[in-house]
Structures are given as structure tokens and as C-alpha cells.
Amino acid sequence: EVQLLESGGGLVQPGGSLRLSCAASGFTFSSFAMSWVRQAPGKGLEWVSTISGSGGSAYYADSVKGRFTISRDYSKNTLNLQMNSLRAEDTATYYCAKDGRIVSPASGEFDSWGQGVLVTVSS
Amino acid sequence: AVQLTQSPSSLSASVGDRVTITCRASEGIRSGLAWYQQKPGKPPKLLIYEASRLESGVPSRFSGSGSGTDFTLTISSLQPEDFATYYCQQFNSFPPFTFGPGTKVDIK
Lengths: 123, 108
What we know:
The complex is a heterodimer.
Chain A: E1 3-7, E2 10-12, E3 18-25, E4 34-39, E5 45-51, E6 58-60, E7 68-73, E8 78-83, E9 92-99, E10 110-113, E11 117-121
Parallel strand pairs in A: 2-11
Antiparallel strand pairs in A: 1-3, 3-8, 4-5, 4-9, 5-6, 7-8, 9-10, 9-11
Chain B: E1 4-7, E2 10-13, E3 19-25, E4 33-38, E5 45-49, E6 53-54, E7 62-67, E8 70-75, E9 85-90, E10 98-99, E11 103-107
């Protein structure tokens, strides 16, 4: 059974940094692209970032490009999101999501999701 | 970037009703579309991928159709557990992957 467990959320001041992690289990971690998707309170879903299974390709939404960095640790089967220069508009629940198919660099349909972690950017 | 619109934005329906939600892409995306169901406080759940393929474990009352720019999610007989918000998402052209604004289905 696929399991994705996010951690690292919390309250941070504008301009601050936070690192999210997603512990993955139940599948061959290196075979599937992984993504972060966020949802502001009461709003819809917004794709944030994707990293290929090999880790060689990473993609970002324009809204976070240059501020967020996605990475993966194969020794721990963990997906990470380093978030710098945080803004109030980054306040959201962040979900990690697994690709549904083994496609390089990514298939883009997300068949498994974590429960999400809340990031609040406020002074 | 491909933009997605959904209609309606919300609807009220009764148990047993046939429900149809449409998703339109700003440019052709072939069959690169997925549908998700999300209940309050829960992560999204994949229902349909590649426009019409039913995800494993999803009830057969859910179906998807369309290609190019116009897509439809149909629930043939609405059940109590189907009251939720539904999102379409395109994965044909990225970055970015884009989601539609959502359609909330509630009880009439």
C-alpha cells in the first residue's frame, strides 16, 4: 500500500524559510516522479513543483520559481520542498503526490496523495 | 499555459440523479486530462485519468469522456458519498500542470 506522510509545516514570518518533507513507502520510489500541490484555505488546487524519478529534472510553477527547491533523498525515500522568501500568499495546505505511471520525466496524473501539511505565513 | 474552466461551479442534486460536469481547455490537450474528487479536510482522490480511464477501485458510476478541448465527468446515479468538490487537471502540456477551479456538488 502506497503511503505518503508529509511533515515540516507550521507558522513562519514573511521572508522566512521552511522545509517540507514527504516520507514515501509502498512503491519503488525511484521509478515515479513526485510532485507538490498546494491548496490555499477555501480555494482550489495549485500545482507547485515536480521532480522526475531520477531527480534529474525539476519543474516549478511561476509563482514559486526561484524561491522553492524540490529534491528527493533516495536513501530515505523522502521528497523535500525547501521554501525560501515565503509570502502571505504561500499560506496553504501542501500535499505531496505520486505520479500514476512510470513516465520520464513525469506523467502528471497523481494517483496517491499525502494527507497534507499546513504552512501559514504571517507576522 | 493551458487554462481550464469548469461548469457549473456548483450544483445541487439528489441521490440517484445523473450528474454531468464539464471541463474546457484553452487549447487542445488530446486525452491528457484527469478528474479528482475532494471531500472537506481530505486530499484529492484520482477518479479518471487519460480522460476516460477509470482508476482502480473507483465505482463504475463514474465515467469520463472527451478529447481535445472539451471533457465531461458523469456520475450516473449520485450516491450520498459522492457529495464533494470535483476538479479536472491537464497533464498533456507541462509545466505547468493545471487544475480547473472545481465544481462543488451538494445535496438538494
